[in-house]
Every structure is written in C-alpha cells, then in structure tokens.
Design brief:
CATH topology of the domain at 44-65 and 203-382: Rossmann fold
Family: Belongs to the SNF2/RAD54 helicase family.
GO cellular component, one term: nucleus
CATH architecture of the domain at 44-65 and 203-382: 3-Layer(aba) Sandwich
Strand content: 5-15%
Radius of gyration: 25 Å
Protein name: RING-type domain-containing protein
GO molecular function: ATP binding; ATP-dependent activity, acting on DNA; helicase activity; hydrolase activity; zinc ion binding
Structural class: alpha/beta
Pfam families: Helicase_C, SNF2-rel_dom, zf-C3HC4
CATH superfamily of the domain at 44-65 and 203-382: P-loop containing nucleotide triphosphate hydrolases
Number of strands: 8
CATH class of the domain at 44-65 and 203-382: Alpha Beta
Length: about 375
C-alpha cells in the first residue's frame, strides 16, 4: 500500500485539494513525467502534412429558441430540475442515475424539436403509414421485402419509370434491389405497429411546424448550395426520430438525401453508403451517430453537421473524421449546431472541460491546466 500513499501525497492531494497554483503546477509536472514514460499519443493534426490531408475547421452555429419553443423548453427544464433537486436532497442521486440520464435526454430532445417528446406516443397523431416515395399517407399501402411501405400507385409508377430506362429498380429508402409484390393485399395499418416504425407516421405532417434547430441546418445547407459547386454533407444526430424529421424537411426543401441508422441490415447500410458516394445529385447523408460514428470512410463529403452535442467529445471527434481522412482533397468544415438557451450550451462547456482535462494530463499543456479548478481535477481523478 506504500505506493498508493506516495501517489496520494505527491499527486492526488495536491491536485484535488490544494488551492496554491504553484503546488498544483508541480504536481501536474510530476504527472506529465509519469504519463510521458508510459503513454504514446499520436495526434492526427501533427501528421496532416505527411498524410496529405487538407485543413479542417470546426465552427459552432449558435441560435436561440423561438418564443413557443422557449416556453416549452423552460417548462421541461423546470420540471426536470425539480426532480433532480429532489434526488439530491434525499441523498439518492447515485441510486437514480438511469432516471437522471432520462431527464437529461428529455432536455436534449426538446432542444432538437418538441415533437421528439410530444409525439413519443402520439395518442392524438395521425398514426398512419407514410409512403417512402411521396412522403404522404400511404394509399393502398404495400410493403417491400426490405420492410418499407409505399403507395401502391407510387411504387408501380416508380417501377415502370425505371423499366423504361432499362435499369434495375432499387428501394428508394435503403437502395438495395427492390423486391415487392404489387398484387399483395393492402397493409392493415395496425396502430401499435405504425407508432413504432417512424415519428413521421405519428404526426399530422400537413400541420407540422419545424424547429429552430432544423431551420438552422436548412439555412446552412442552402448556403452551400448557392455556391457553384457540389458539396456533399453528412448530418449526424443521436436521435433517429430527429433524422426522420430532418429528412422530411430537407426533401420538402428540394434536397436529395440518404439515411443510415441502426435498424438497417449490413447490406442496406453498404448500399446506402455507395448510393451517397456515387450519385452527385445526393447532397446530404443523414447518419445516426451510434450506427455510423465510426468505421466509415466518406471522403466524397467535405461538410459535417453535428445536430446535437454529446458530453463525450471523443464521439464527436470520431464522427467529424468520417470525411477528414486519407483520400480527402477538399478542406473540411465541421459545424456544431447549438441552442444557446438550452441544456446544449452547458454540454458544450462540459465537452471543453473534458478536452482540457485530456490535454492537461497527457500533453504538457500549462494553459489547459490553468483552466481547471480543484473541483475539476477532483472530477478527473475520482469521477465526482
């Protein structure tokens, strides 16, 4: 146990308990000396020239809620804060970690679009299947073998048009070869099944109102389109329902999109990636962060939009690097969308704090050390 005592005396206690900057600085120097001998960290930014990578820029697009969204968000934040304070007062915060995580998720969803909460169950929604071609309630709905629904007339017209061109029909949704029986009976639209399939099926889209976050994205994409060049973009979100709303809005705005989420089979994922990479008219790739945040090489795109921040900065770094890889020839711009008067602004601060902790511990970075308070360092070592 002697080595534990030395660690506490020389490192842990000075870093977490001392308010003397000189004492903390000396302790951090000792920690740097130890980590430098046992760790090797290679940063891509230090080798971009040898890898022949173009520059990468990260920007934050901040906006404030509209009046209606602000009122709804404040009511949700008030309720969730009250619940959290109750856990703290009773001393059971750690025993309710899952519940607290759920409260945070609610506040994050509200920052994206209120319907992510309001239409979670959709007791008053339309609850009908939506055609994957016309984006309207499916008439005489039929289902393909890849489990996507269409109006019978829409898919029939689509197949006829492809046949006239002499090509092979792919599913407009997942882009694998389309196999569908046009003589099958109409799908019986079971309400419980419809609710589980897509948030679009649960909302009366003719009365639907977009959100500040979605309009931020549409505005940024329109700016790219106004230039005399084709710039492909990747849009990341952790909420599949948010991606579905974004897709519906972008299609209405005239953008061709492809989506990749966790419900797709490996073949569907690969065909969707190929469709995005090989079709110049497809401008936007909508990707679930958990399904496509790693192990993808999408160098055809040079713009990345992160719709909702995550408290682990490494997850965003990984997603941003889907396009900034070997083979990329154009400068890359990573845009993080953030609603200022929401929980997202605090999450961005938490990300910066975690990044500073990494730099202050692994790198010999005194400036990041100065940004960390004793409480921050206690979090680094104890997780509290």
């Amino acid at each position: 146990m002697e080595h534990v005592s030395v660690f506490n005396q020389e490192l842990l206690n000075p870093l977490t308990q001392s308010e003397d900057p000189e004492v903390r600085s000396k302790a951090m120097d000792k920690l740097h000396m130890i980590t430098a001998r046992i760790m090797l960290r290679r940063m891509k930014r230090d080798h971009t020239s040898s890898m022949e990578l173009p520059p990468k820029e990260v920007i934050v697009h901040n906006e404030f809620f509209g009046e209606i969204e602000r009122d709804f968000s404040q009511s949700i934040m008030t309720n969730t804060t009250r619940t959290f304070d109750t856990y703290v007062a009773r001393g059971v915060m750690l025993n309710n970690y899952a519940n607290i995580f759920g409260l945070i998720m609610q506040m994050r969803q509200v920052a994206n679009h209120p319907d992510l909460l309001l239409k979670k169950h959709a007791h008053e929604g339309q609850n009908v299947l939506v055609c994957n071609i016309c984006d309207e309630p499916a008439e005489e709905a039929v289902r393909s073998q890849c489990k996507h629904e269409f109006c019978r007339s829409c898919v029939k017209s689509y197949l006829q048009s492809v046949e006239e061109t002499g090509g092979d029909a792919d599913c407009p949704r997942c882009h694998i070869p389309l196999a569908i029986d046009l003589d099958q009976p109409d799908i019986e639209q079971d309400e419980d099944v419809v609710k589980k399939s897509s948030i679009i099926n649960r909302i009366k889209m003719e009365n639907w109102t977009s959100s500040t976050k979605i309009e931020m994205l549409v505005y940024d994409l329109y700016k790219l389109r106004s230039k005399k060049q084709t710039l492909k973009s990747i849009v990341f979100s952790q909420f599949t329902s948010m991606l579905q709303l974004i897709e519906w809005r972008l299609r209405r705005a005239g953008f061709n999109t492809v989506m990749l989420d966790g419900s797709m089979t490996p073949i569907q994922r690969q065909r969707s990636i190929e469709y995005f990479m090989t079709n110049s008219d497809v401008e936007v790739f909508l990707v679930s962060l958990k399904a496509g945040g790693v192990a993808l090489n999408l160098t055809e795109a040079s713009r990345v939009f992160i719709v909702d921040p995550w408290w682990n900065p490494a997850a965003e770094w990984q997603s941003a690097d889907r396009c900034h890889r070997i083979g990329q020839k154009r400068p890359c711009v990573i845009t993080r969308l953030c609603i200022e008067d929401s929980v997202e602004s605090r999450m961005v601060m938490l990300q910066e704090k975690k990044a500073n902790m990494i730099n202050g511990t692994i790198n010999n970075d005194k400036t990041s050390m100065e940004k960390l308070t004793p409480e921050d360092m206690q979090f680094l070592f104890r997780g509290t």
